[in-house]
Amino acid sequence: MKVGLLLEGGAMRCMYTEGVIDVFLENEIKIDGIVGVSAGALFGINYKSKQVGRGLRYSKKYAKNKDYMGLYSFLTTGNIMNEDFCFKKIVNELDPLDYETFKNSDVEFYAVVTNLETGEAEYIKIDDLKNKNNLEILRASGSMPFVSKPVVVNNKKYLDGGIADSIPIDKIMSMGFDKVIVVLTRPIDYKKKKSNQTFPKIYYRKYPNFAKAINNRYKKYNEELEKISELEKEGKIFVIRPSKLVKIKRIEKDSNKLQEMYDLGRENTLNLLDKILSFKNSDIKKGER
């Protein structure tokens, strides 16, 4: 049975996701493929590299470091998330990513990015983060619009995958997985509201398709939530979502808030552990026992 894991983005709300995947690793819950969006991809790599606690550890340690992410980074580099600090110093020196384990893992990993020219989502397989293009795709997936420069890979300009496809349920359902687990980062009653429609058109006037994707995001997001709810009721997917609202900023500097969001992810997943295992192991095909 092939199991797919879909990870929604949400900047530092994805501390929740980090808690979920750490419980998965600790309990040896095998996942065959991951589709990660934005920060969901950035933290999701720790499942493939089998590094429990890594995402929480460096996020708390460097949350208040001006070179990590925030206004200082944006004003000095043009990126809210500092490229050199996050994608060179942390991954190579300060809290190294286990590149070899990641590369040798049989977990298929896809990061979602939005193409600025087309305004469409692209789902790009990442198998070796020592490959510069792979790392740049990962960076692009988590590069928020308005506060990030476009990331150029193979002459294509990319930004945040969550713009074109925030929760790519249709994509992962088409990828041949027998079971799909979805990790959301907002409580069950959340609905995205319509945002200012003029500013994106002005700011991204050279990329009208991208501006259109931004303006349509709320509608597509809510439609995807409805589809996920239906599939969940039908027992076709399993959904893990925050059981309560944690007021956390997209660029959160308070390590206590980061810990709270992470702890909620752990708590919710541990409480659902038996149900998760039952879902994974149910309807085993004949001959697979």
Polypeptide structure, described:
- Helix content is 45%, strand content 14%.
- It has 12 helices and 8 strands.
- It has helices spanning 15-26, 39-48, 54-62, 71-77, 83-94, 99-104, 132-141, 169-173, 198-203, 208-233, 255-271, 273-281, and strands at 3-7, 33-37, 108-115, 121-125, 151-153, 156-160, 179-183, 237-240.
- Strands 1, 2, 3, 4, 5, 6, 7 and 8 form an 8-stranded mixed beta sheet that branches.
- Helix 1 runs parallel beside helix 2 (39-48) and helix 1 (15-26) packs across helix 11.
- Mean pLDDT is 95; it is low at 285-289.
How would you spell out the order of helices and strands?
EHEHHHHHEEHEEHEHHEHH
Radius of gyration: 18 Å
* Intertermini distance: 11 Å
Stretches where pLDDT is under 50 for at least 5 consecutive residues are 285-289
Helix content: 40-55%
In DSSP terms (H or I, runs of 4 or more residues), the helix count works out at 12
Q: Biggest sheet: strands, sense, closure?
A: 8 strands, mixed
User: Strand-residue fraction?
Assistant: 5-15%
Find the count of extended strands (DSSP E, 2+ residues): 8
Q: pLDDT average, as an integer?
A: 95
Structural category is: alpha/beta
